[in-house]
Amino acid sequence: MTAPPSPPGRWAVRIGDDASTGPVTLPIGQPVVAPLLKQAVVAGLVLGAAIASTVTPWLPVTDATTMWWGVGCALLALLIAALIPRWPLLLRVELLLPAVDFVAVGLLRYGTGESRSVFLAIVVLPVIWIAANPGRRHIAFPLVGTCVTLLLPYVIAPGVVPGSEAVRLVVALLVYAAVATVTNELARRATLRLDVAKRQRRVMEAEIVQAALMQQALLPNDTTVLPTQLDAVGVCLPAKRVGGDFYDWFPTKTGAAFTLGDVMGKGVAAGMIAAAVRSVIRSTVDDADAAHGLRRAAAGIATGGGDILSGQFTTCFHLRVDRDGTAQWADAGHGLTILRRADGTREALRSADLPLGIGSSWASVTTTLADGDAIVTFSDGVLDLFGTDADTFDRFAAFLDEHATAAATVDAVAALAEASDHTDDVTILAVTYRAAEVSDER
Predict the structure, then answer these.
(1) What range does the domain containing 404 cover?
(2) What is the per-residue pLDDT across 164-207, written as a single tens digit (0 to 9) for each?
(3) Which of 101, 137, 246, 304 could hold 274 in an S-S bridge, CB 3.0 to 4.6 Å?
């Protein structure tokens, strides 16, 4: 027997954009958009307040120059925020933007009525901006900024602060202190929950990767264990990291056994069922009846009606080939197997038996293989590569005829799957019989 040009057991683990292969590098523009959006809101409100005070008679303007200086400060901070996507190093001084906003709101307040200004509430935005950062120090920083906003009019125009105004300033400071404290605490708790979720996700991803590696290890990768009369090649490309498809082969007393299964669904749960079916079928190595392996597998995965797995089913094709070319096969609702004769003729190997988990009995069918005959069995994910209409099976059969050997067909299917974003597991197994090897042994 000539070994296939490439290892028969192949596995593709599709890694998502959050995979465990390392941190995902985002484009420069994405992580630095938040400062620009925050500053755009503050600058928009300050500019809108100045325009509304200018054109509306019932909004006083006590010092237009100071008011527009406040607008200028807010727009300057907006310009700096707009430069951050181009120069990400500016993120290091991001908190200078809300610091400038405190001054801008203070100037706006002085220019639009001082203590009577209706625009003091804008200061809550830079307060929240700073307080949302981790660390208790970010409670003190916005309070200092709020003091600047409240006291800036008295710096511009020194004078005696009336008692009622002093009380009002203290109350306003206490309110914004409460806002900063609550915001910082909520942000801290959200960060803790996010950190816990990230750790749990990393653990889960590590477990999924280990499951994928374990499933890969269960795929056969050594054809030397097979009799010289039999050649096998297979490929399994799951749609997710862990798939519900599997193929297998192992030697028997009279030849070798081959299996391809397709568990309903995808992911870890389907992969666990696939591993269980594979193991149980392997345990029937000394049983000559191919259907017995299916019966044992069905009993092995049987559950009570109330169990979560009670609705699961598995389609499966199990084949046993003797060294003299006698092939016995059993089909559990699979129906996706083709016997391609060496003379180019084809016949489908399928039965009316139901899948594992649904049916209760399976029967074996015997056929005889001649030199060069090949049996190709595959999952429905392979058919999806050829379309979704009713004649995809015929298109795949024609595709099979286009390749000289079964191994070439497997390689071609693998190339199609790897070039597409397939949403279902793609698995194919091809077994070729070489009668010439029998004559050589005799």
Answers:
(1) 222-441
(2) 777 878 888 899 999 999 999 999 999 899 999 999 888 888 87
(3) 246
